[in-house]
Write a structure and sequence with these properties.
With 81 residues, the chain is α+β, with helices and mostly antiparallel strands.
């Protein structure tokens, strides 16, 4: 499995003799997480550019970064349990 997002979101169920089955996530969930991660990286680049060119901190962009990071983390944690 080369898709690291899909691999991270795959649930593994274990029985007495080891791995019983692996339940893969829905494709919409995988695409949504990939979009959120890409959007977080884009907003981070925007914040760095804002700091470099204007020399000030943009709190609105930082709030969006924080919200997306929390969303992605919550999805990863809740999907694994």
């Amino acid at each position: 499995m080369t898709d690291w997002v899909k691999q991270a979101l795959t649930r593994k169920r274990y029985g007495r003799k080891g791995l019983k089955e692996a339940v893969e996530p829905d494709e919409r969930l995988v695409l949504g997480v990939k979009f959120a991660i890409a959007f977080t990286f884009s907003l981070t680049a925007l914040e760095v550019a804002h700091l470099a060119f204007l020399g000030s901190w943009n709190s609105e962009v930082f709030a969006a970064i924080t919200g997306l990071t929390g969303t992605v983390t919550g999805i990863m944690i809740s999907q694994k349990s």
